[in-house]
Amino acid sequence: MSATRVPVVLLHGLTDSAACWPSVRTRYADRTVVALDARGHGGVPLPDEPFTIAALAADAAAALRELALGPALVVGHSMGGVTAEELALTAPELVAALVLEDPAWHEDGRLGAAADDAGAVGLGGAEAAAAPAVPRDDERGRPTWLGPAIASFAGRTVEQIAARGRLDNPDWPEDEILGWAQAKTGVDPRLAEVPHDWVARDWVGALSGVRVPVTLLTAEPGRAVVTPGQAARAASVLGLAPDGLLTHAPVPGVGHNIRREAPAAFLAALDAAVARADAAA
Q1: Residue 161 phi/psi, 5° resolution?
Q2: How far apart are alpha carbons 198 and 267 in whole angstroms?
Q3: C-alpha to C-alpha distances, 193 to 16, 48, 156, 182, 198, nearest whole angstrom
Q4: Strand partners, 38
Q5: Is residue 82 in a domain?
């Protein structure tokens, strides 16, 4: 049996940051865990160019090559999920396995369902009510909720944002609330101004080019990005384990923020993926 401990790399969602993985850091304190901040997040500069998944994956690849970790299990939430997939497609030598937490699989200029929206980033009350139920991209490819979301956090302290987060998300663990709030203070407001490109690939179809095991965590239909149809198509493309590469871990009754709403289920799926990656290393 292999004694190798595969490193774990964490890629966050839009308006989150490297601070948003407290449960994973605690769980895997005995192995190398690296959480990366995307450009325009966590205080990382935002270049004056389109914000694309390809660029995010290239940034991640450069960081991982500099760290010289070897192949890693890459965990991605939402935006981080498609970034992780792009990384596996363009820099496969860096990726031992993927864990995708409700990845942002856009279709036809819109998300699969009501997620990564005002509620997903913590807007509450009238602000959330004013957000589109199915967020669409605007003419420059930007999620329509992004500008109002960033504006809603402007000028607020971490504690003020956290207090609001506790009201809007009373079931989230406190360490998740604090990481989420910290992340909001590090978002570059220009992120809502530059063009975005989330649809350079058919993300489900592109799984045909992935050569490593994939764990897909999905949430309650209608409260998430990934639809049942997309999950079924992913299973068709990759094949279901143990003969295929896909392990599908549906988590009923929760929304887009699976690890925050159902931490035990999320960590159980992640534990299984880590064990498989260690055994294969």
Answers
A1: -65, -40
A2: 27
A3: 18, 10, 20, 22, 15
A4: none
A5: yes
Q: Which residue has the tokens 């997903």?
A: 120
Q: Give residue for tokens 């302290």.
A: 157
Q: Which two tokens stand for residue 241?
A: 């384990």
Count CA atoms within 13 Å of residue 242 on its CB side: 2
Residue 88 and residue 84: Cα distance in Å, rounded?
6
Q: How many CB atoms lie within 10 A of CB 166?
A: 14
Place of tokens 């064990």: 275
CATH code for position 61? 3.40.50.1820
Question: What is the C-alpha to C-alpha distance for residues 266 and 176, in angstroms, rounded to an integer?
Answer: 14
Q: For residue 1, is it within any domain? A: no
**pLDDT tens profile 16-56:** 999 999 999 999 999 999 999 999 999 999 999 999 999 99
Per the domain annotation, does 15 fall within a domain? yes
- Tell me whether residue 170 is in a domain: yes
DSSP secondary structure string, 19-33? Answer: GG-HHHHHHTTTS-E
* b/e burial code for range 186-205 (CB count within 10 A of at least 16 → b): bbbeebbebebbbbebebbe
The pLDDT tens digits of the residues spanning 168-209 come to: 999 999 999 999 999 999 999 999 999 999 888 999 999 999
**Contact status, residue 240 vs residue 246, Cβ threshold 8 Å:** yes
The pLDDT confidence band at residue 93, using thresholds 50, 70 and 90, is very high
First to last CA, the chain: 10
Q: How many domains, in total, are found in the chain?
A: 1
Tokens of 214: 């994939």
Q: Which domain holds residue 164?
A: 8-280
